[in-house]
């Protein structure tokens, strides 16, 4: 939604500043003029709001989330679906996404990392208690206040037990980098899938990187089916590593049984670190690691590789649902579970708040601009999308694994197949889509159109009937854009039709 004049929704909510955008709509900082308070308003794309089936599911899941009352879950205040479209009114959180915290500091020391992940586990326990699986647990969906408290947000693809999800049947749901192995294979997500995703978040907090990385998200997703995550390194105590490794078990039954148990184990280890008890075991006394064969999960969307050899730590004979003592850590007696920042700490993760120092070159990940994102290099903004500053002409597309990779850029006076006429932000949930599926995504379909093509053309009559192609390109750690390419479809051509 682009606006130059104040917009009021339902005669009550004044949209003030856009603070984010995704595949289903936008999030605004707004003012509830009836109650005189600041709120967050999530608007739904008109094309989705007009779809009766989507509207029914949107209302059902919003009502389900409104029943979750927990200090670690963003509260829902109001819901609207009518002539003005559809929107959700939520608690406004004065904080920043955990993804930005990690971008600034690289990695967190174990105490503050456990503090944040423990809060997220408590919030997930409350959500799961209502029969809801979040399905998109990641740093970008966790807001951190200046005092170090964390709130879980963005339930746009959540699913309630027995309900139909907002997303299309048969689609891979969630952000690929955080999907549990069973989700990669097309199995339904469960509460233990959220535990796995939280384990990925914990790994990223402690190391500054995700456990599985590859040239594209699909390859990284497949790695977790047959590989153990890389070692943490000496800066992570063995008990902390054991916590996260269990959360990252390939088989759901080998993970922490639920978020509550994971949270309790985190509190146990955090308390032991504070009290100085339970040093990591020496190599010759460490609990042995057993190698065993895992039978492959039954695929429904992709074919798995052969049975993989995995590293796992044997469970003691404790009941399956009971918290398991972590090797090398003495069990504390009723110790507090919340880490308090030092009195002189300007930020819980800054100097004096855990011994962390921001990266020397750290600024906002993308610089200041609307929605916290800067205009990509080589573009300028126009009407909610970007247009090239100068002609961008390309040869044939290179798409390994279904993802765009930059081919050689060609000067306009040389023969080429395609030219970029517009670009826009690509939501994370669309990164995994196959090339032929991209045009069906709402965010892409709103920009890669004949209307935008004509608006960007020097001579609109010349480009009538040209072929259009969306092309995803990664330009930052967690940021993707898509180029809208156009060509006459008759082979190579000369010159530039746009900018």
From TrEMBL:
The keyword Secreted does not apply. Residues 314-330 have a biased composition (Low complexity). One of its GO terms (molecular function) is ATP binding. PROSITE patterns: PROTEIN_KINASE_ATP, PROTEIN_KINASE_DOM, PROTEIN_KINASE_ST. InterPro entries: Kinase-like_dom_sf, Prot_kinase_dom, Protein_kinase_ATP_BS, Ser/Thr_kinase_AS. It comes from the Bacteria. Residues 313-336 are annotated as: Disordered. It is an enzyme of class 2 (transferase). Keywords: ATP-binding, Kinase, Nucleotide-binding, Serine/threonine-protein kinase, Transferase. Signal peptide: none annotated. Its EC number is 2.7.11.1. Coiled coil: none annotated. ATP binds at residue 42. Residues 13-273 form the Protein kinase domain. This is non-specific serine/threonine protein kinase. It comes from Catellatospora coxensis.
